[in-house]
Design a protein that fits this description.
The two termini are about 20 Å apart. By secondary structure, the chain is of the alpha+beta class. The strands form two sheets. The chain has a six-stranded antiparallel β-sheet, with no helix packed on it. A three-stranded antiparallel β-sheet has the order 6-5-8, with no helix packed on it. The chain is elongated. The chain is built from five helices and nine strands.
């Protein structure tokens, strides 16, 4: 864990000197220097004191580098298309087993034959009119409607309207990175 350099970065970003930090926390300059250089491992109580002084949540100091927030700029997103249709899938982001996608359905296009895969899905119809089927269930959904399902049951989505449809999909699957 690189807690020390994280503390130093926060302190410098907030333009706080080591002397000010000493005054605010009651810790010595040498101790703070050793913490920031990762030469000592402070107790949770000491980390709480430092976090409180820096006005950051204690858990933030304990995050590993790969646990920090991830940002994907709009122009950096990945797109995929379906082999079977004109579907355009925009991959908006992912974390652990959770991913979020925006799927554009031109009129008449669908996800193809009913398919199943591991995981859970939640959908929000952003625009258009779609048909969503899972097993024996079948619903016509429009802008603002939501639906969710266990993806291990074969399912299918089709744009049944005259205009483009867009569906925001959150997919969770354990073991997916």
């Amino acid at each position: 864990m690189d807690i020390g350099s994280k503390i130093r970065t926060i302190r410098n970003r907030k333009k706080i000197t080591i002397a000010q930090m000493c005054d605010g926390t009651g810790l010595s300059k040498g101790f703070i220097s050793n913490v920031e250089n990762n030469n000592t491992s402070p107790s949770i109580s000491t980390l709480q004191t430092i976090a409180h002084f820096l006005k950051v949540p204690l858990p933030y100091l304990l995050l590993e580098k790969d646990e920090h927030m991830t940002v994907i700029r709009k122009n950096e997103r990945e797109f995929t298309t379906s082999k079977d249709s004109d579907l355009m899938v925009e991959h908006l982001g992912s974390r652990g087993g959770l991913s979020i996608r925006l799927v554009e359905f031109p009129p008449g296009t669908s996800t193809g034959e009913k398919k199943a895969h591991e995981g859970e899905e939640c959908h929000l119809v952003l625009k258009g009119k779609i048909l969503a089927e899972q097993g024996e269930d079948s619903f016509i959904l429009e802008e603002g409607d939501t639906f969710s399902w266990c993806a291990s049951v074969p399912h299918f989505v089709k744009n049944i309207g005259d205009e483009d449809a867009a569906v925001l999909i959150a997919v969770y699957s354990e073991g997916t990175e």
